[in-house]
Amino acid sequence: MPVITKITQQKKDPERYNIFLDEKYAYSVHETVLVKFGLTKGMTLENWSIDDMIYEDEIRKAFNRALHYLGFRMRSEHEVKQKLLQTGFGEAVVLEAIVKLRDLGFLNDETFSKALLETQKQSSGRGPQAIQQELQRKGIAKELQEEVVDSYSDEEQVEVARKVAEKEAKKNKSQSPRHTERRIQNALLRKGYSYDIIKRALSTIDFEIEEEEWEEVTASIGEKAWRRYSSKFTGNDLRNRVKQSMYQKGIPFDRIDWFIDKKENEDAD
Length: 269
Hints:
The chain has about 270 residues and is mostly helical. About 65% of the residues lie in helices and about 5% in strands. Helix 9 packs antiparallel against helix 10. The longest helix has 24 residues, at about 45-70. It is elongated and about 105 Å long.
């Protein structure tokens, strides 16, 4: 049976110790493993005990790697497990490390899920469907997903969606009210809100604009359409192309006719 002939502390990592068996370097262990197994010079080791030490040390390595990974932000158990497996640790070692992390409070999927919900609401303005999809991607159990998302009340969803809508409305002042409303509706759908919540949120927003603003919006959208098609079409073809483009942008027919008449009169002059 091998005998420990020397134990030295590593210079680069003082928490690790090199173990020499029968005058030859054998392996290194973390100081917690050294203490746990009571390793001392002159100690005789069984082969099975060496395997236990190496296994315990691997768990410690995985534990420390996980702590480093968690140092950047909160993670789900699934994320940590996948990271450790990708790093090269065996599944048994990873599961042991995760149990230690969980017992010490470094991993808690419930706390993580609730924090993710709040972050997604406040920073991204996302709705319950999108948040649940994110929780699913993080490997959160379905029951916990539903429990967390159910805490997102309809009233709070309407308020968050309203803030998103107001922000989008300010960014789209150069668009027609109908076009702006449609774009916001699509944006809220992508963020994971139901049609009912979107309808309630949009009902609080005043999309109407003043007559002077209508003229500016109509002229801006019309000019872009006119430039796009005037080099390729003339006469009725040009009118129809411009009319279709402007209508798709939410400009009413009477305003479209006003713009086209104005352009044709300018060209005639």
